Inverse folding.
């Protein structure tokens, strides 16, 4: 069983994305957060099912939104470092904070 830890930077990313989506359409930010919850659940069921893309980092797309969860498996923990817009600069995505 894995414990999911969401780092502060990822929490800020999630909050900002939810605010942005709510500004686009009332309630869309809540839909985004529900999609994030689904993505986190999927990761927790099969964390090894996601390919290592950069060093130790794995990614999970938050469908249908263009956001990626950047995470690492460390012992029995799934550490979410970033929630990043898939269209943003990829060089900034894969950093531990």
């Amino acid at each position: 069983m894995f414990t999911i830890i969401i780092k502060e930077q990822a929490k800020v990313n999630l909050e900002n994305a939810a605010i942005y989506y709510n500004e686009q359409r009332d309630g869309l930010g809540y839909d985004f957060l529900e999609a994030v919850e689904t993505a986190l659940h999927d990761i927790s069921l099969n964390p090894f099912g996601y390919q290592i893309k950069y060093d130790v980092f794995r990614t999970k797309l938050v469908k249908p939104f263009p956001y990626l969860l950047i995470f690492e498996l460390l012992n029995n923990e799934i550490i979410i470092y970033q929630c990043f817009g898939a269209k943003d600069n990829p060089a900034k995505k894969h950093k531990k904070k």
Summary: The longest strand covers residues 77-85. DSSP finds three helices and five strands in the chain. The mean pLDDT is 90.
